[in-house]
Write a structure and sequence with these properties.
- The chain is α+β, with helices and mostly antiparallel strands.
- The chain has one domain.
- The protein has a two-stranded antiparallel sheet.
């Protein structure tokens, strides 16, 4: 039987730690192969989403790092 848990997390970071979290998350994203998105409406072409576009702020960095620990 599966159970679902809801977790609320509050994280406080100073500017230096915020920048570090973003860089760590971007590095992890690059090492795991990143993500791709469709190009145009015709055909199955995909383009890579760069780490800077996928992890652009501390919130996204925290979510990427949390997902890395599943």
């Amino acid at each position: 039987m599966k159970k679902t848990y809801t977790v609320e997390l509050e994280v406080t970071l100073d500017d230096a730690l915020e920048s570090q979290a973003i860089e760590v998350a971007r590095d992890y994203y690059r090492k795991t192969g990143g993500a791709r998105e469709p190009v145009g409406k015709s055909g199955p072409r995909l383009k890579e989403i760069p780490a800077e576009g996928f992890v652009s702020d501390a919130r996204e960095a925290i979510m990427e790092l949390a997902d890395a620990n599943d």
